[in-house]
Amino acid sequence: MSHATNVTKLSAGTRSDAPVRTGNPFFDMLFSMQKASQQALTVYGAPSQKQSTGTASQQSTNAVEVMSVGEEVLNVGARTVQGNTVRLRRVVVETPVEKQVSLREEKVIVERRKPTAASQGQDVLTEKAVEMNNTFEVVDTWKSVHLLEEVVLRKEVTERTETVRDTVRRDDVQVEQPTSKALVRHVKA
What we know:
The structure is a single chain. The chain has 189 residues and is mainly alpha-helical. Helix content is 17%, strand content 2%. The protein contains two helices and two strands; from the N terminus they run H-H-E-E. A two-stranded antiparallel ribbon has the order 1-2. It is rod-shaped.
């Protein structure tokens, strides 16, 4: 670990165009990548002149690089939630009522009177029976059911338009062109 620290201090202090050789292939590769990134910064300007986007740049060695660009889409739908419940319940309630009714009574009355001229010569001195009944009315009650009204429970559908506001994100590609300074490349011998 101390070997890598010493080499880093040595390479940071030296600013020559010659590649740094440590004898360790891993550290040689790290230093050559550091040298390439310093050369790229001289083409695009110093980091203090650029706005930082918070993302690190990656140096590509491929002939073609593809960067995916996407965006968020606000999807709006509706779902049914249960609200208040309306319940119809029929119960029987008893209420005392009273009504007046006229009752008729017929009573047989026996009375005696003197014979009239119309009854002269009628059938007399023969056996005969005549009957007549007393009649009277008594209260007779019964109940009947008739419909007063119907109570209907139904749903009424109404529609309304509601505006939903939110923010969505999308990728934006910014192309940075190199300045007029030429890219300095060192050819390894």
